[in-house]
């Protein structure tokens, strides 16, 4: 029954489909990472990625995945026994917490139902209660890739300020950077992490960490035993366009290209495009009579949409069906959501027709498997998307 | 208003979108076309293309476009003053006729309204009337790329046989080969031509001519002054895997890959896929309340569908609109059909979701420009496409 | 014994090795050749190629090989029975003559020993003797790819002028353009032809014809039956950035890139580089005690060097040996030079180290096969090449 | 003075030049790392890399650089305060020691002059003296990339056995794997690390760790706080072809291709090729009258050759000169060898002509800068390389 012919629609919330320009860029012959041409490349991408983060502070680029960036944030700023405040927005917040605890840090985890954002008020309350300032950092996921819920980082910054609490603000911007507005300096985030394979439209293999002066200061005296993910040598080497160990040069070629593409389109336009595609997706889900996982109207992610399956129907059967029949890959439900939701990625280079193809595949899948729904999802999405013309 | 972000949907009836595997193949470093490695490549593609044509006779591959293949068919078999029978199926039949006349050949052109196929009975009648066998060749376009009408080559072969007429059968298989069933030897076609950028899913730049023993025989004594498009040296050189002048090596790399892809999918499956996509397209057009140009139910092309615009509406305005707004390229109306029709290509590597994306773009365009239509085209297409699962 | 591991050294005088930038460019997805993006591409390459030719007149780009460009020159300007003056510089001059005669043109072929250039004085003599101006064209190969001899086009122009003869000047610039200085307008050449796979560093598949006002004028009234290679429609369509039939779009992407590369390096620098590499090659040949085929010191080609084998030794055995053992492809002797010479291409993207690798391979081959020679060729070449630093 | 035209010769001892086939492979569109097609890819490369290591135990593949693989070896097997035995073979042995100490491990560092291998007898002596078995691991660099000295891992294994010492044997195979014979299981190595950009001919970005049963056992109870570089989850996930966090999919495409290339050539042939190229390089150095850094005839590396500059001459000036003038990148001297040596990489896809081009560039550089030497290095290398034919 499988065919898999023709273009593959990779509509998972990352890795996102990689633009042809980027794929060609990463396939250029490699150069000496200790030579002058490399230094030029490095300066270009280090400067560019700072613009994407909205920061004038260092952004570090490690060969690695986003999980490594999480580790880097933790081991450079925290010490064993330190206490941090985290919020259970979903699977990835839980994973970051798990990683943090592996390093001996005590986490205060504000519970959540995986359908809502990190609530600034709850954070404010916790911090206000922490009169001895034992909480060293507030660690929040900006866009929960497992649920399609985006948290209000700016408001969380304000909550910390209102509480006059000295905790660092550390943000997982893994699936938000390049897709949702993110203002590192303006929001005074101390550490933000991301990776290459989401809004930056690259293959996986690069981990990014954006810093603040406070974070750098803290890393000098504090942090844990570390080597690979250490900031100090990276900052030092980067000054002249080099790296303390071999960088992933070909991915940096790709990064140069993807930053150029984002800036050619214009970041405001990029964000507006994501918003439009997300609105169309939600309209489709509503038309089908299905439910979006995110239960907070203000918190809908423009990066992905998680859709709840009707009771008694398996999301993974649907995912399998559309992959086999329509060459369409959707994201699975993670952890306790496995089988209960599927996730539609509409990030990166996604455009109107790619989204409509995706929604068509889903609508045919719902029909083909006899999953209760109403027709009209694609229509509803078209109604949103045609308006902009 | 233009954005052109994300994947481009090139849904013209050729050049068709090129598979990633083929694009990577053509970008490999070039080799000496007089060396042993080349000979191996040549034997592989010359053997493969014969399988695609369904022939054991030589198939010649020239650097050039399909127009050159037309010329090659004419100058190797006909002489100035010769008479041939052609059928006005549309723009490309007319262009082929024009080219043929440039070479001093007299054409008997059975008139047509560009909405129907080449009628075997009309051909039979003409041949029967030609008692002195002045007609040297019957020249027919298998799939009229300008109209989306496919002609019945097998029946035309039978009409010639029934008339006991010695005319050669020459077929333009430019947009049919690799997309519609075509049986060179079984149908006893004498000369068939095609090019790289349609069902073979390659960039333009290769012209193909498939021969029969009779055609080869005739070319030895007859034909006109010629050099580039001459068959004799090509046949001679090809025997050992070489070419009389520099071949387009990198495109041959691509050809090796595209033949492999077609045979991996299976030619029967390839044709069935084209049929299914075409049926879905026609269902969409009907649902919109628009009219397909092809007026003969038996003659609908599975390669492309030409759609008539409601009176007073310009097809090119629609084409411009969907290109600007949705990064979708549709085919224009050619010659007197300019502005009156648009053409949807659904050939090559097209699959279900690519087609639904295309139809979505058209439906949004019809709506965005206020062109009278009913909604539901995409739905209707989904109803066809979901069935196969 | 074969290994063929690692980089292949393709040092034939065309196709020349293709730069990575060009290979990546031709592998980008294809676009509609009737759309606005294509028109922009076409205008860019049509403008660029005029700069490379040094002309403000049209340069036409056909899908095809250089052989087609030859044909285009002939059929647009000459008629059956016309007389032309050609010079036997080598295999390709002979082939061009053969093609010209196939078209019914009478050729006056000044004989040559394949070791010298087209002599302006001999041409002057022939033209002066042609008091009735029966000679319609002087047709000369600029750089004889089969022998490594370059002819003095400027002096030939002057010879024609001195004879006050109205013959058109038609030049085969196939292996010279982009590698040797060529000034179409300044030298008042009427028709010049080239192809993609030599100095333009592209895959084969594009044929170019540069024109003059006189040539265009002549083509309007004269010439032979023709269609594919006709100039008039091409000129007409090109005005708006389009083509009368499907162009080889992906190769045009490559052309855009290769023109950019040539202009980034600077044409003067490109020519100087070719001169330097050629001088080093000749120094190597001399050091080996072998003889360069070109017997005229002023006529050495900077594109390739043809080397004569000592009597009793087979050049093709050497070529086979270095291909099998060192992954090095050299050009063979053509026609009666088969086995007697081998040709070293040093054109296109060739640089110092590529050349020295090539010469090393040859020196090891000479030694490995026991061909009489003195050591030191590579040394001699290094002595030339190191000086520029 | 800079030109940088034509092919770049990247002859540093890693990243090594990447084969065209690998570059094309890594540029294919990405797929879902949680889907069935990925699982197939993963099983293929996990199986293949075990064959390259010569092991039936797990080999783990992390997104990261070789430095990360070092860390992974340390944090999974050792605990703070543990004692290990290391040998000062050069810069990278020193760096690995530095990293190990950052993790609180006490290192016993057998001093060396950076011109010799890790001496099995010295190791035996140390272990024999360690009667209380405080040494938990012997950590050795197989091929010292900074010096061009290879150490005898098999003999070191025997030294440990002879001492009846339970220390783990941990080997840095970073620049040896795929270039020098390495037999993980046969030599009973416990942990070996490598990365993608040396003998595996890939871009940097993958870190590999090969294990033994003992190492795995030890990691279960011991090791330090860790997350990213932890073995247990990786082993667990890999069983079904998946990874605990996002793998560097496109590099895995490349790995599949490079393993195929190595196995097509045959590992024995690969090693023999490296040996031959290295012998030729040493012959060239000797002919120049320069000195190879490696002072132990049995320890010459076949991966790279480090060359000592005559007193008073700066190696980096030479490196700069050949890069500017001949587009040739050589490796620099590291740490206290900076300016005193240059390193010639002859690994990966290097072949005879690439090496001779490299040696020619060096010989011209020596001459151009007036560095005292005798001519004839290239000649001497040719004498070695031509023999195999």
Structure overview:
Chain A is α/β, with parallel strands linked by helices and 389 residues long. The first copy, chain A, is built from 13 helices and 14 strands. Chain A has helices at residues 20-26, 36-53, 66-77, 91-102, 120-129, 153-162, 213-221, 232-238, 249-265, 267-288, 315-326, 352-368, 377-387; strands at residues 9-11, 59-63, 83-87, 106-110, 135-141, 143-144, 149-150, 168-172, 191-195, 206-211, 291-292, 304-308, 328-332, 341-345. In chain A, the strands form three sheets. A seven-stranded mixed sheet of chain A has the order 2-10-9-8-5-3-4, sandwiched between helices. A five-stranded mixed sheet of chain A has the order 1-13-14-12-11, sandwiched between helices. Chain A has a two-stranded antiparallel sheet with strand order 6-7. The radius of gyration of chain A is 21 Å and the shape is globular.
Brief synopsis:
Four copies of one chain form a homotetramer. Chain A is of the alpha/beta class and 389 residues long.
Strand order of the largest sheet of chain A: 2-10-9-8-5-3-4
> Which structural class best describes the helix and strand composition of chain A?
alpha/beta
Q: CATH-wise, what's the superfamily of the largest domain in chain A?
A: Type I PLP-dependent aspartate aminotransferase-like (Major domain)
Largest interface: A-D, 55 and 55 residues
Which CATH C-level class of the largest domain in chain A is it? Alpha Beta
Show unreliable segments of chain A: none
What composes the largest sheet of chain A?
A: 7 strands, mixed
Q: If you average the pLDDT of chain A, what whole number results?
A: 97
**What's the overall geometry of chain A?**
globular
Gyration radius from CA atoms of chain A, angstroms = 21 Å
Which architecture of the largest domain in chain A does the CATH hierarchy give at level 2? Answer: 3-Layer(aba) Sandwich
Examine the coordinates and then state which fold CATH places here, giving the name of the CATH topology of the largest domain in chain A. Aspartate Aminotransferase, domain 2
Q: How many β-strand runs of chain A? A: 14
| End-to-end gap of chain A | 39 Å
Work out the helix count of chain A: 13
- The helix content of chain A, as a percent range, equals 40-55%
Q: Provide the number of structural domains of chain A.
A: 2
Strand content of chain A: 15-25%
Give the H and E element order of chain A: EHHEHEHEHEEEHEEEHHHHEEHEEHH
* Oligomeric state of shown chains: homotetramer
């Amino acid at each position: 029954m499988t065919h898999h012919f023709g273009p593959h629609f990779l509509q998972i919330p990352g890795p996102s489909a990689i633009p042809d320009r980027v794929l060609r860029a990463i396939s250029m012959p490699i150069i000496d990472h200790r030579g002058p041409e490399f230094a030029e490349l490095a300066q270009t991408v280090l400067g560019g990625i700072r613009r994407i983060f909205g920061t004038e502070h260092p952004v570090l680029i490690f060969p690695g995945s986003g999980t490594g960036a999480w580790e880097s944030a933790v081991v450079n700023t925290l010490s064993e026994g330190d206490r941090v405040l985290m919020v259970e927005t979903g699977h990835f917040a839980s994973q970051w917490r798990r990683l943090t605890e592996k390093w001996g840090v005590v986490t205060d985890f504000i519970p959540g139902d995986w359908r809502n954002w990190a609530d600034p008020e709850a954070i404010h309350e916790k911090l206000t209660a922490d009169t001895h300032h034992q909480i060293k950092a507030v660690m929040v996921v900006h866009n929960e890739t497992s649920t399609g819920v985006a948290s209000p980082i700016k408001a969380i910054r304000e909550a910390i300020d209102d509480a006059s609490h000295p905790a660092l603000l550390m943000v997982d911007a893994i699936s938000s950077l390049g897709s949702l507005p993110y203002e590192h300096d303006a929001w005074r985030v101390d550490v933000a992490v991301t990776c290459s394979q989401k809004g930056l439209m690259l293959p996986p293999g690069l981990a990014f960490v954006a810093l603040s002066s406070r974070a750098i200061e803290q890393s000098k005296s504090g942090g844990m035993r570390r080597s690979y993910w250490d900031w100090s040598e990276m900052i030092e080497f980067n000054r002249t366009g080099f790296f303390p160990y071999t960088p992933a040069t070909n991915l940096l070629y790709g990064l140069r290209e993807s930053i150029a593409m984002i800036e050619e389109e214009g970041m405001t336009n990029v964000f507006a495009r994501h918003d439009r595609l997300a609105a169309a997706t939600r309209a489709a889900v509503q038309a089908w009579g299905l439910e979006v996982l995110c239960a907070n109207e203000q918190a809908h992610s423009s990066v992905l949409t998680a859709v709840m399956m009707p009771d008694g129907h398996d999301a993974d059967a649907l995912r399998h069906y559309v992959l086999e029949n329509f060459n369409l890959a959707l994201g699975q439900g993670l952890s306790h959501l496995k089988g209960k939701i599927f996730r539609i990625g509409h990030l990166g280079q996604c455009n109107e027709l790619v989204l409509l193809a995706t929604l068509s595949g889903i609508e045919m899948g719902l029909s083909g498997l006899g999953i209760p729904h109403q027709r009209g999802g694609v229509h509803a999405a078209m109604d949103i998307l045609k308006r902009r013309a």
